[in-house]
Amino acid sequence: MALAQMQQSEMVVTPLSEQELTRLIQQLPKEPDNSSVVCVLALLKGKTASQVSKVKEGEYSEYLALEGNIQDWTNAPDRCHVDEAYYEILVNAKNQHGQNLYRMRNVSYIYTADGVTEFHFYTPYMSQAGMNAMIESLRSHKDFKTIDMGSIKGTMSFKKLTVTAAGGQELVVASLEDRLAARTKQCSEQAKGDEVMCDDLSYSIELGWIYNNFLSFNVVEGIQTAKYLGAEKKIVAIGKSKIEPIQDIRSIFPETSLLASLKQDWIIRNSNKWTRFSKANTWNQFWNFSDTKYYGNISEFQSYSNRIDAQQAAKVVECARLAGKNPSTNSGFSCVQSKRGPSIYMFNYRVYESALQSGFDVFRMDAQSTYVRIYLASDSTGSAVLQMALPRKSSDYFKVLAPEL
Description:
Blueprint: E1 4-5, E2 11-15, H1 18-27, H2 35-44, E3 52-57, E4 61-67, H3 70-75, E5 86-91, E6 101-112, E7 115-122, H4 128-140, E8 145-149, E9 152-156, E10 160-164, E11 170-175, H5 176-191, E12 196-211, E13 214-223, E14 228-238, E15 243-245, H6 255-262, H7 266-269, H8 274-279, H9 283-287, E16 290-292, E17 296-304, H10 310-325, E18 333-336, E19 344-352, H11 353-357, E20 360-365, E21 369-378, E22 383-391, E23 398-400
């Protein structure tokens, strides 16, 4: 994410008058089911007009702002959705190298006679230690959720996922504090001593699945103004005393089992690289990764919608040859059209290294097999998956932790 230079000169802050605050409260609709109104009324209770400001940023952005202390935040009603707050990181604050400040911001949208009003509820800027104390205070006032993971006990509590493995030691899988520290380090390395706004994001943890002692989860970040959500998927191994990212899918399943199952997938069997795939005895022989200008290390191949017979082979090979030379050719290029049988289409697929490191899912298990899918990238047809059925041991444990999987 690019760093945005703070432009304080473009911000105009004006405290409300008593009349303006009274008018605002009177204009709020009396709707007990409206969470935004309930939230804002609760936050304004006991506040003076001078504590509420009208903020104008740049030419178009205007909103009301209220700064609250830790007690205000811990007392905020559930309808304020503090779980969805945004986190700001100001790196090299006041152009002092290494002085980093943090702030939480909650946003509500309320409808009045004057239209839609954006209401920001802030914490003061605070040090990293102060922000961590703030987060822990909020956590202590929130309910925690226990997650059944077989022999592993999981607990989720306000932006923090911990597990207790067989050794009995509690380990932190992911937390808001760790994420803020990591982003601060990354931004500090790029800032070169200048004061910059590093982050302005929301943050959440979404569980995926657990297979034995391997756990999949997403770190999800959102940007308020862009209405954007980005998720970084992670798969980790939970040990007795530490948690580590896996190297790739072979950290979980034997290479020989993976190769044997991949060779049964119809996308692989119908591909133009089937000869190489079928004869490969090692992982590197199978994927044949190469560095590309735009995509990094990938393994590319083409696959067809049907198995081809000898008469169709020449046409399809020629189609693949021409398509490979023409960068404007899309996936799904029609190679053979026949009135007697189904048409045959060619698809351009690629596998990123990341797909084998974290871009796969364990999604089902029965008495005989554990089922895994690897996600492929395709030029214009969205995505496709390679499906694998891998031998199951009687002691294997699997559970889907997210309903969408």
